[in-house]
Amino acid sequence: MILIAITLYLMKKDPKLLQRRMSGGPVAEKEPTQKIVTSFASLGFIGLIALPVLDHRWHADRPRFVVGLLIIVAMLPALIWRLIDEERFLARNLSGYVEYQDRVRYLLIWSVG
Protein backbone atom coordinates (compact mmCIF):
# COMPACT_ATOMS: atom_id res chain seq x y z
CA MET A 1 0.00 0.00 0.00
CA ILE A 2 2.82 2.39 0.89
CA LEU A 3 4.51 1.70 -2.47
CA ILE A 4 1.36 2.69 -4.30
CA ALA A 5 1.17 5.93 -2.32
CA ILE A 6 4.82 6.75 -3.05
CA THR A 7 4.35 5.95 -6.73
CA LEU A 8 1.26 8.16 -6.99
CA TYR A 9 3.04 10.97 -5.16
CA LEU A 10 6.02 10.79 -7.51
CA MET A 11 3.74 10.62 -10.56
CA LYS A 12 2.28 13.94 -9.52
CA LYS A 13 5.24 15.75 -7.94
CA ASP A 14 8.35 14.40 -9.69
CA PRO A 15 7.70 12.17 -12.72
CA LYS A 16 11.35 12.42 -13.83
CA LEU A 17 12.52 10.94 -10.53
CA LEU A 18 9.95 8.17 -10.86
CA GLN A 19 11.23 7.39 -14.36
CA ARG A 20 14.83 7.20 -13.12
CA ARG A 21 13.81 4.90 -10.26
CA MET A 22 11.96 2.56 -12.63
CA SER A 23 15.00 1.96 -14.81
CA GLY A 24 17.37 -0.28 -12.92
CA GLY A 25 19.18 -3.56 -13.02
CA PRO A 26 21.81 -4.63 -15.51
CA VAL A 27 20.31 -2.63 -18.38
CA ALA A 28 20.68 0.66 -16.52
CA GLU A 29 24.36 0.12 -15.67
CA LYS A 30 27.03 1.74 -17.83
CA GLU A 31 30.12 -0.11 -16.58
CA PRO A 32 30.56 -3.66 -17.98
CA THR A 33 31.58 -5.01 -14.57
CA GLN A 34 28.46 -3.56 -12.99
CA LYS A 35 26.29 -5.13 -15.70
CA ILE A 36 27.71 -8.55 -14.85
CA VAL A 37 27.40 -8.09 -11.09
CA THR A 38 23.85 -6.74 -11.21
CA SER A 39 22.88 -9.63 -13.50
CA PHE A 40 24.01 -12.12 -10.87
CA ALA A 41 22.37 -10.14 -8.08
CA SER A 42 19.11 -9.91 -10.05
CA LEU A 43 19.11 -13.66 -10.63
CA GLY A 44 19.67 -14.16 -6.93
CA PHE A 45 16.77 -11.92 -5.98
CA ILE A 46 14.53 -13.71 -8.46
CA GLY A 47 15.69 -16.99 -6.91
CA LEU A 48 14.76 -15.70 -3.46
CA ILE A 49 11.19 -15.42 -4.69
CA ALA A 50 10.93 -18.33 -7.13
CA LEU A 51 12.69 -21.19 -5.35
CA PRO A 52 10.66 -21.13 -2.12
CA VAL A 53 7.50 -21.04 -4.23
CA LEU A 54 8.67 -24.05 -6.23
CA ASP A 55 9.67 -25.82 -3.01
CA HIS A 56 6.16 -25.30 -1.69
CA ARG A 57 4.62 -26.43 -4.97
CA TRP A 58 6.65 -29.64 -5.08
CA HIS A 59 6.37 -30.23 -1.32
CA ALA A 60 10.13 -30.25 -0.82
CA ASP A 61 11.33 -31.77 2.44
CA ARG A 62 13.94 -29.16 3.32
CA PRO A 63 12.87 -26.05 5.21
CA ARG A 64 12.17 -23.10 2.95
CA PHE A 65 14.40 -20.75 4.94
CA VAL A 66 17.36 -22.98 4.10
CA VAL A 67 16.78 -22.37 0.40
CA GLY A 68 16.60 -18.61 0.97
CA LEU A 69 19.73 -18.69 3.09
CA LEU A 70 21.60 -20.64 0.41
CA ILE A 71 20.57 -18.11 -2.23
CA ILE A 72 21.73 -15.21 -0.07
CA VAL A 73 25.07 -16.92 0.56
CA ALA A 74 25.42 -17.54 -3.18
CA MET A 75 24.70 -13.84 -3.88
CA LEU A 76 27.27 -12.51 -1.42
CA PRO A 77 30.30 -12.76 -3.72
CA ALA A 78 28.49 -10.76 -6.43
CA LEU A 79 27.38 -8.12 -3.94
CA ILE A 80 30.87 -7.82 -2.45
CA TRP A 81 32.32 -7.61 -5.98
CA ARG A 82 29.91 -4.78 -6.76
CA LEU A 83 30.79 -2.95 -3.58
CA ILE A 84 34.52 -3.14 -4.23
CA ASP A 85 34.06 -2.14 -7.88
CA GLU A 86 31.95 0.88 -6.89
CA GLU A 87 34.57 1.98 -4.37
CA ARG A 88 37.25 1.81 -7.08
CA PHE A 89 35.01 3.70 -9.52
CA LEU A 90 34.34 6.45 -6.99
CA ALA A 91 38.03 6.72 -6.09
CA ARG A 92 38.85 7.16 -9.81
CA ASN A 93 36.02 9.48 -10.79
CA LEU A 94 34.90 11.49 -7.75
CA SER A 95 37.28 14.18 -6.62
CA GLY A 96 37.98 14.05 -2.91
CA TYR A 97 36.75 10.46 -2.50
CA VAL A 98 40.21 9.04 -1.72
CA GLU A 99 40.60 11.62 1.05
CA TYR A 100 37.13 10.70 2.30
CA GLN A 101 38.14 7.02 2.40
CA ASP A 102 41.19 7.96 4.44
CA ARG A 103 39.10 10.00 6.91
CA VAL A 104 36.19 7.57 7.28
CA ARG A 105 37.50 4.27 8.54
CA TYR A 106 34.24 2.32 8.83
CA LEU A 107 32.64 2.54 5.41
CA LEU A 108 30.07 -0.25 5.40
CA ILE A 109 29.60 -1.74 8.85
CA TRP A 110 30.48 0.09 12.03
CA SER A 111 33.76 -1.19 13.50
CA VAL A 112 34.53 -3.25 10.39
CA GLY A 113 36.96 -1.26 8.26
Describe the structure.
- It is a single chain.
- This protein has 113 residues and is mostly helical.
- 73% of the residues lie in helices and 0% in strands.
- Helix 1 (2-13) crosses helix 2 (15-22) and helix 3 packs antiparallel against helix 4 (64-93).
- The longest helix is centred in the C-terminal third of the chain and has 30 residues, at 64-93.
- The chain is built from five helices and no strands.
- The protein has two domains: 1-25, no CATH class; 31-113.
Features:
extended; mainly alpha; 2 domains; 5 helices
Helix content range = over 70%
Number of domains: 2
The radius of gyration over CA amounts to: 19 Å
Which shape, going by the Cα principal axes? extended
Order of helices and strands: HHHHH
Count of distinct strands: 0
Approximately what portion of the residues adopt beta-strand conformation? under 5%
Number of helices: 5
Largest sheet: none
Which stretches are poorly predicted, pLDDT < 50 over at least 5 residues? none
| N/C terminus separation | 38 Å
Structural class: mainly alpha
